[in-house]
């Protein structure tokens, strides 16, 4: 069984979208250099989501602890009012509606 990470970030205000976009660009560049099996993102206004599919949890941790992702995590308190994270076992990414429901009900919530 593979690993999926679903995340959401709720921005403190809409003007922070531009800073989020810059950080996201670095994260996407980093993710393209990994062995990620699938990646999706979507968002509007102050709420943004990502889903990634990995072979195992070790790959998730390696990705999260370096490069653009690590830099973005360090800025999260200045950008976000909350972040939710959920890692599940599955072989393919779920539909957005299902992913958002799982994230809301089971995700770990970080408030800033």
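^ Assign residues to that structure.
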């Amino acid at each position: 069984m593979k690993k999926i990470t679903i995340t959401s970030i709720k921005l403190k205000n809409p003007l922070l979208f531009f800073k989020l976009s810059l950080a996201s660009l670095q994260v996407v560049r980093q993710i393209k250099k990994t062995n990620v099996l699938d990646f999706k993102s979507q968002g509007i206004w102050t709420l943004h989501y990502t889903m990634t599919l990995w072979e195992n949890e070790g790959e998730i941790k390696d990705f999260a602890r370096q490069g653009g992702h690590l830099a973005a995590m360090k800025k999260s308190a200045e950008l976000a009012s909350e972040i939710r994270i959920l890692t599940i076992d599955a072989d393919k990414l779920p539909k957005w509606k299902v992913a958002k429901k799982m994230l809301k009900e089971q995700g770990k919530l970080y408030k800033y």
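The mean pLDDT is 96.
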